[in-house]
Amino acid sequence: MRATDIGGRSRISVAQQAFNEVVDALPDGTHLGIRVLGATYRGKDKAEGCKDTQQIVPVGPVDRDAAKAAIATLRPTGFTPVGLALRAAAEDLGTGPTTRRIVLITDGEDTCAPPDPCDVARELAAQGTHLVVDTLGLAPDEKVRRQLLCIAAATGGTYASAQTPEDLTGRIKQIVDRAKDTHAPTPTVVSGGEACAGAPLLSPGVYTDREQISEHRWYRVLVNDDEELRASVSIALDRPVNRDYGVLLRATAPDGRELVRGTDAGSGRTDVLSTGLRWSATEPNEDPDAQPSPAASDGPTAREVCLVVSNSFATPPGVAASPGMPFELTVDVVAASPAPNAPGLGRGWLLLLVLTVAGLVTGLMAGWLTRWWIATWRTK
Amino acid sequence: MINFYDVRRRLGFAVLGASAISALTGLLLAAPAAATPTPSPGAATVNQAGTSFLTATAVHAGQPVHTPAFTGDYLYWSFTATPGQVTEISLSVTLPPADQRTGASTWAVEVFDGLRRRQACTAGAQTPTATADAAEVVLGCTLRRVRSWAEPWSGDPLPGIYYIRLSVVDLPEEDLGLPIEVDMLIGTIDGGTSEDDGDLKAPLMPPAKPGKVVTAADPTASDGPSPSPEAEVAASWATDWLPEFSARWVWTTIGGVLAAIAGVVGFSLTWRRRT
């Protein structure tokens, strides 16, 4: 942070200025906390230096003066315990129904592994609290970039390399704006079953789950005869994977008969791979075990439809298989849209014209025929 | 059973060659005029983009989008489409200064429907590659005409929400995280009157609220007296062969009246000449 390479100024002074501007621009009602790493211990002992992370501003409504005063005292020292700081920051933020965002700003790669900061990020993401880590690198350094990209990918966050003070300020403000926009309830965490029988029964809504490579996750949904099932799945690529991959979402009857499938495949760099499906019954339910719909016991019977999410990812050697890759499952049940029956009726200006011309021709023919008939009758 | 629709098409072309040709030239003239969407006057510029399907920023047709971003970001926007609509998306990305980059980059604009199913582009540069010294890369995508109804098993575009994702799909890893500027504009072409039958009872609008896991359906609940399939069939038999009231009834009835009038006129013409 002491290096002077951002517009001729030291990284720490640029970071401090950017932070001050952001604190000024924060909307009221934002909850902000600041945690520093490698900012107090000046010794050479790695064991001590790697514990060096403190929360200098506790998470809560912004106190602008206190935050600025705390930032002004920051001085960079030697060690960068990124993994430990991430874990502590996640604890600072606690748990709740909304998305939590960590903005990690650093100019140096982690010097304290283990724990590897990327593993820590994946572990935090897998804990079920919806945590996103946005990363900002202040140095054009390959190791820093690799590490920050890995952390961002593991949590669905972003990576930016700040080359100018404006980049840094702009990016932090953007992240704050996004945090404000995404202040919405996070998807429900669910754990899919290994087979249709006994799989969790889902109501319409958004869910998240994780599945390992080549694992199948099952869910059940109740669909009435006059309803349509809609489901979509987005599986996130939170770790390095081989070049080509695919995702498959199938709806099956409880006996395993496939009803419909949605599939997508791709290759190269992407954040999520998605697919979806629609399904509605075409014939009345004749299943004797059908359960009456919860809404009306004498209404149409509800049948159970199983959903199974599977994937065809593969990882290069050395990439951990566990925890599984996160995916988002959206389930909706709406009124069915039956196929329009062949109408036997026409529409459009062309139809009117054809009918009119046909009528005219018929009238003329009838007229001439009548005239011819009367003429022959008269001559007789 | 004869499909009336096809019959009238064929008859139409036979009887009305001239008007069909004029309609065709009208279409040909209209197509180039709509090649680039233009911002609608007074539309406020959107200055942000979402980072996932759930957080996609909603935009309208004709509303310009201008947002700073960084190489490697996945940017999401969403818009809604109605039946008969043809949507055109045009995007341009101002790349970081060439001296900061090390190689060529490939960009992609991908469109997904409300069920996150990939939608095909019928025209436009969907995945262009920018050379190492390019200052800007232009992307475009024209979608298929939105249908008013499609079978659940088909992937036809349906009314509802659509998602746009802009990303860089291939580039040297060192070039990630550099600042870029993104401009986007969505334009719509009216694809003409929708000639599809049937309608989607609910547009493809995915739920955004967290779901609730129903622990299990209560197995002790006794089955209520559900109507037998035979009874249902009997009840619907009377209305089964008679299509529901729709615009087609009106068109056909007017057509019949016109034909009758034309018949009387034609008949009287042959007699008037005599007198």
Description:
With 380 residues, chain A is α+β, with helices and mostly antiparallel strands. Chain A is 29% helix and 31% strand. In chain A, strands 9, 11, 13, 14, 16 and 17 form a 6-stranded mixed beta sheet that branches. Chain A has a 5-stranded mixed beta sheet with strand order 8-10-18-12-15, with no helix packed on it. Chain A has a 3-stranded parallel beta sheet with strand order 5-6-7, with helices on both faces. In chain A, a hairpin with a 5-residue loop joins strand 13 (244-252) and strand 14. In chain A, helix 1 (11-25) runs parallel beside helix 7, helix 4 packs parallel to helix 5 and helix 5 (117-125) packs parallel to helix 6. In chain B, strands 1, 3, 5, 6, 8 and 10 form a 6-stranded mixed beta sheet that branches. Chain B has a 5-stranded antiparallel beta sheet with strand order 2-11-4-9-7, with no helix packed on it. The chains are: A alpha+beta (380), B alpha+beta (275). The interface between A and B is large, with 108 and 98 residues. Strand 9 (201-202) of chain A pairs antiparallel with strand 12 of chain B, so a sheet runs across the interface.
Q: What's the short story on this structure?
A:
The complex is a heterodimer of chains A (380) and B (275). Mean pLDDT of chain A is 83; it is low at 288-298.
Instruction: Indicate the low-confidence ranges of chain A by residue numbers.
Output: 288-298
Q: What's the pLDDT, averaged over the residues of chain B?
A: 78
What is the number of helices of chain B? 4
The succession of helices and strands of chain B, N to C, reads HHEEEEEEEEEEEEHH
Radius of gyration of CA atoms of chain A, rounded to a whole number: 32 Å
Radius of gyration of chain B: 27 Å
Strand content of chain A: 25-35%
Main pleated sheet of chain A: 6 strands, mixed
Average of per-residue pLDDT values of chain A: 83
Taken in chain order, the helices and strands of chain A follow as EEHEHEHHEHEHEHEEEEEEEEEEEH
Helix content of chain A: 25-40%
What spatial form of chain A do the alpha-carbon principal axes imply?
elongated
Global shape of chain B: elongated
